[in-house]
Amino acid sequence: MLLNQDFSHEFHWRGKDLRVGFVLPEAKKKISDGMKYMSKETIRHRFFGLKNGFTDRELKYLTEIDGYNHFALGIEEVKNPERGVAILRLVRDDLYPQEAEMAILIIDEYQKVGLGSLLMHFCIAAAAERGITTLRFTYLPDNHAIVKLIKRFGSPKAEQLASDYVQMKLPLTKELVDKALKALSEFFVKA
Ligand SMILES: CC(C)(COP(=O)(O)OP(=O)(O)OC[C@H]1O[C@@H](n2cnc3c(N)ncnc32)[C@H](O)[C@@H]1OP(=O)(O)O)[C@@H](O)C(=O)NCCC(=O)NCCS
Question: Could you confirm whether domain 8-190 is CATH 3.40.630.30?
């Protein structure tokens, strides 16, 4: 598996040296501090409401992961590794193990520069390595950024879950997986 617990890779992105790597238990403080770098809108879109911080139990859940049923990658600046820049999370469904819920969060300063698409490629590759064939996204109806991002990868139908949430399921076709692997191999050559 390419994207395993040892995965860590430095790359250059829009004038910055960044590192993408597997989320380890040591990331608790970074995740906890991360709220400082997010607008209320970003927090609301990711956590579906107000959030001021994480409990110890939440931090354990977010960082002590097996890499197979629960996979997460983080991005940080090489020069300032105490600050998280982005995180991608993939959690396998208990009842439908070929489906996984994907969540993504990029701090405001780094939004709209294409990191979302890069993380989608990583997510699709990680999912394919783990036998996941469908990605699920749950989001708030006014989250146009995530919808635009998903639609770059396919045209799944949105389904209203409860009054406050929408869900999209993106089937991971061979074409989509090949496209992600190709984008990542170009990324690794360039970075
Ligand atoms: C959703 C999110 C991951 C998108 O990441 P990103 O790096 O900004 O995405 P990209 O730069 O690859 O751009 C994707 C598209 O969304 C658009 N976009 C980004 N932010 C936007 C915003 N606030 N409003 C409208 N469109 C936006 C981009 O312009 C781009 O559109 P295009 O395809 O027409 O060019 C990021 O905005 C984010 O972390 N938001 C907060 C958390 C969140 O909403 N997570 C999703 C729910 S789990």
Answer: yes
| pLDDT for the residue 42 | 97
C-alpha 30 – ligand 1 centre gap (Å): 22
The alpha carbon dihedral of 5, 21, 103, 182 has a sign of negative
Q: Give yes or no for residue 75 having a pLDDT over 70.
A: yes
- What is the reported pLDDT for 20? 97
Segment 13-17 long-range contacts (CB within 8 Å, at least 24 positions apart): 13/113, 13/115, 13/118, 14/113, 16/77, 17/77, 17/78, 17/79
Cα within 13 Å of Cα(87), Cβ side? 23
Q: Where does residue 3 fall: left (phi above 0), alpha (psi -120 to 50 degrees), or beta otherwise?
A: beta
Centre of ligand 1 to C-alpha 104, Å, is 10
For ligand 1, the distance from its centroid to the CA atom of residue 46, given in whole angstroms, is: 12
Confidence of residue 91 (pLDDT cuts 50, 70, 90): very high
Pairing of strands 158-160, 166-171: antiparallel
* Residue minimizing CA distance to atom 41 of ligand 1: 42
> Ligand 1 pocket by C-beta < 6 Å: which residues?
42, 45-46, 103-106, 111-117, 139, 143-146, 148-149, 152
Of 139, 157, 122, nearest in space to 44 by CA: 139
- Which pLDDT score, from 0 to 100, does residue 149 have? 97
**pLDDT score for 191:** 64
